[in-house]
């Protein structure tokens, strides 16, 4: 019998998070869910389970094809995970990134603290 694989280790192994500690923190903060319920980093994965993973503003839906404990190359990820994220989500992120860049007039200098807060509120809320 294979040893059970933790969700944080799996998310790192299929390259959704750069480090395992980032995957663990995402689980602890409630960014990894199954059936709408947040998962602990120690949750044991099983083939066929579907997870909702929030990475910054992108909300991905993935299905486990096969449990995986060690990190694999990017080309091999499709053997272990199926991406069920709707295309509209990727289009939404593309639109957000397109309009997230603010343009300042040349010579206007750095934004003041108030301007910076207004920019951040506009971009991230």
Separation of the first and last Cα atoms: 47 Å
Order of strands across the main sheet: 2-1-3-4-5
Provide the gyration radius in Å: 18 Å
Helix proportion? 25-40%
Largest sheet: 5 strands, antiparallel
Work out the number of β strands.
5
Order of SSEs, N→C? Answer: HHEEEEEHH
Low-confidence runs (pLDDT<50, min 5 residues)?
A: none
- What percent strand? 15-25%
Mean pLDDT: 89
Spatial shape: elongated
Give the count of helical stretches: 4
Q: Helix/strand/pairing class, anyone?
A: alpha+beta
How would you explain this protein's 3D organization?
By secondary structure, this protein is an alpha+beta fold. It contains four helices and five strands. It has helices spanning 7-13, 20-28, 87-99, 113-124, and strands spanning 32-34, 37-38, 50-55, 58-64, 81-83. A five-stranded antiparallel beta sheet has the order 2-1-3-4-5.
Main attributes of the structure:
125 residues; alpha+beta; 5-stranded antiparallel sheet; 4 helices; 5 strands; elongated
Annotate the secondary structure layout.
Layout: H1 7-13, H2 20-28, E1 32-34, E2 37-38, E3 50-55, E4 58-64, E5 81-83, H3 87-99, H4 113-124
Antiparallel strand pairs: 1-2, 1-3, 3-4, 4-5
Helix pairs in contact: 1-2
What's the gist of this structure?
Helices cover 33% and strands 17% of the residues. The protein is α+β, with helices and mostly antiparallel strands. Helix 1 (7-13) packs across helix 2.
């Amino acid at each position: 019998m294979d040893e059970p694989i933790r969700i944080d280790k799996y998310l790192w192994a299929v390259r959704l998070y750069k480090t395992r500690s980032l995957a663990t923190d995402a689980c602890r903060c409630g960014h990894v869910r199954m059936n709408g319920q947040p998962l602990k980093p120690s949750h044991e994965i099983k083939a066929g389970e579907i997870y909702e993973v929030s990475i910054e503003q992108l909300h991905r839906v993935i299905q486990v094809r096969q449990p995986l404990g060690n990190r694999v190359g990017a080309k091999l990820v499709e053997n272990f995970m199926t991406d069920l994220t709707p295309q509209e989500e990727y289009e939404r992120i593309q639109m957000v990134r397109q309009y997230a860049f603010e343009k300042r007039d040349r010579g206007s200098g750095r934004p003041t603290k108030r301007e910076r807060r207004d920019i951040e509120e506009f971009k991230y809320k």
